[in-house]
Specification:
Blueprint (H helix, E strand, L loop, with lengths): L3 H10 L1 E4 L5 H17 L10 E4 L2 E5 L14 E5 L5 H7 L2 H10 L5 E11 L11 H4 L8 E6 L10 E3 L12 E2 L10 E2 L9 E3 L6 E5 L4 E3 L8 E10 L19 E4 L5
Antiparallel strand pairs: 1-11, 2-3, 3-4, 4-5, 5-13, 5-14, 6-11, 6-13, 7-10, 7-12, 8-9
Helix pairs in contact: 2-3
């Protein structure tokens, strides 16, 4: 399922992009699923809390104080657990996607264990340099990130940046984001040279496949519109949360079969 070019990029850089992987209908259905959930239960009905639940979804609100809010999604940073239902679940378990992730994980069966729909609204800060595996305290490493562009991702609206080849190194020390009112859970790597960073420009339907040790960040949104993305995290089937992991980390960890070779 992997081309020679993809294998080379994965080994050398720790990521590659699948251009136009998801068609327009899939992107619209996922976007619509999230918007409908927020209109069903608006952030305005949950003042003075950083999180609230809409069914199985966990909505994380923006911590910045200067955000302009005119509709429900303007107040939202991320929505977790989207892989548990609807179009998001269908895409997370897409057999084409599962076969690619399985190949990167040495042909193992694959579970999807976390997901987050990301709203980077106008004026929203980017997330600092980090590695996803720092957050994933599991008995098997690495995991695979699947980043589906729901809107265009540009330098102006807060696209990702990655540090090619950083997946070959260890998991680095992470420190709390030093910016006042930074979003809950934002951590940053401070001791690494990131001069070789590359922006990741994407169109709706493009998918970024990336190693969980890969250092990455996002830029601030300086545009007048939101940058939207759907991110899934996959790992080997049977992966378990380590006993010493922080209790709160399991709130958005729900392992669900995503791909089995017998049906792939």
């Amino acid at each position: 399922m992997l081309t020679d070019a993809q294998k080379t990029e994965w080994d050398e850089k720790g990521y590659f992009i699948l251009k136009g992987f998801a068609d327009e209908t899939v992107v619209e259905d996922i976007d619509g699923q999230i918007a409908a959930a927020l209109r069903k239960d608006s952030p305005a009905d949950h003042p003075d809390t950083p999180f609230y639940a809409v069914g199985p979804l966990l909505v994380a609100l923006e911590s910045q104080e200067d955000m302009q809010v005119t509709k429900p999604e303007d107040a939202v940073s991320k929505i977790f657990n989207t892989h548990l239902e609807g179009p998001c679940e269908a895409f997370a378990c897409d057999q084409r996607l599962g076969a690619i992730v399985s190949a990167l994980l040495d042909g193992n069966d694959v579970d999807v264990f976390q997901s987050q729909f990301i709203y980077k609204n106008p004026s929203a800060w980017g997330q600092p340099w980090h590695q996803d595996s720092y957050y994933f305290r599991f008995d098997q490493q690495p995991q695979i990130g699947v980043w589906l562009a729901i809107s265009e991702a540009t330098l102006d609206n807060g696209c990702l940046a990655v540090l090619p080849g950083s997946h070959k190194g260890p998991i680095h020390a992470h420190h709390p984001d030093s910016r006042p009112n930074a979003n809950y859970g934002y951590l940053e790597i401070r001791d690494q040279n990131v001069d070789a960073a590359e922006p990741v420009l994407m169109q709706p339907g493009d998918v970024l496949i990336f190693h969980s040790f890969l250092m990455h960040r996002s830029y601030d949104n300086k545009s007048n519109g939101p940058r939207k993305a759907m991110v899934f995290h996959h790992g080997r089937a049977g992966t378990k949360v380590l006993a010493e992991a922080a209790a709160g980390s399991e709130a958005v960890t729900h392992f669900r079969p995503a791909y089995r070779k017998s049906v792939g």
